[in-house]
Amino acid sequence: MTRRILRIATAALLIGTLAGCGMSLNQGPGAAGGQFGGLPTAGGQGSQAGFQNWVQSFRPRALAAGISAATFDSAMAGAHYQPGIVALDRKQSEFTKPIWDYLDGAIGPRGATGRAKAGQHAATLSSIEARYGVPREIVVAVWGMESNFGAGRGNTQIVPALATLAYDGRRGEFFAAELVAALRIIQSGDVDSAHMVGSWAGAMGHTQFMPSSFLSHAVDFNGDGRRDIWSDDPTDALASTASYLRQNGWRPGQSWGTEVILPPGFDFNQAGKSVQHSGSQWAAMGVRRAGGGPVPSGSILAPAGARGPAFLITENFRAILKYNASDSYALAVAYLAEAIAGRPGIQGDWPRGDRTLSNSEKAEIQRLLMARGFDTGGVDGKLGSRSAEAIRAFQRSRGVTPDGYADTRLLAMLRS
Ligand SMILES: [Ca+2]
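Above: query sequence and calcium ion SMILES. Below: predicted holo structure tokens.
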């Protein structure tokens, strides 16, 4: 949940891997903007002695950023290097789940739990809706996705974890900035360092805020004088989530979007987040709302290409993407919310028979596209929006449906 997550050139399905290893997707690389870029990192060769040296070299920079010596020294006292966290940060999975498996796992029984939680916290959620204009089912769905409604908030000490990742992670600058943000939170008195716990990569509390997001968006909604996203009471965390979404473009009274039925022969050049039309324009193109009713304005999302379901996404879907820049994640929030509200799930069929491409096959697709002059923005095995655009351009050049979807057929076409 950083406000900078759009910088992640993440594959839509990367979340499937990360969710499986307890890491929220809300960590973007390079977000520190170079402020702490002068510090050497250990590059995976860290040691306790190297860590302590790093802490001492980092101290003047933290103090220059407004952290008091007392706050720094007390929060860092006893902090030690944690090679296990570095190992988690470097873990790469060769396969990611297909979106249908990811959605099945993400939504599943959480719909019923979410309904119960929405009932249990009905009064709080009504106040949050009134204040921020974000529907309760969306707020509860984010809660369910991020910590399984508070059950999985994480108990890793955040300061030593962030210091370890700043010293020896793949994205040292990003974590150095988050470490300063964490120290700023401690200095503000919202929490002390012993109680600042969360997931190993720095996401904290019921809705897994990174420290920088906490500073920008957390609110003291229950009025006890502290912004507390860590305790059993989720009130502040839920309100902070609504605050985050509202500040990132949530429009009260609008939906996230809807599933749509595309007409036969639909022009897939019109699909993708870069193309937006009004509801009446979509209707004129033959796009219908699944289940009937007016089509909203927005963009068409077809995560599994022409053979899978399609969605019309609005500005509010984009606000969820600011929470986590994965289409799969945002669809999971949307449909968990639908389940919590008692509305139908996805009606179209996914191409469940498709074999999952490995990350090296995805990298090969990117390499072959680049070799043919279609710019994927790099070769990292993660098919994000840039790669999807390159795939569309390649498909157009071959006269096949330009749905931007990578499957074994696309790979075969590129290899030939
Ligand atoms: Ca509070």
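The beta strands are 156-157, 197-198, 257-261, 288-289, 299-301, 310-313.
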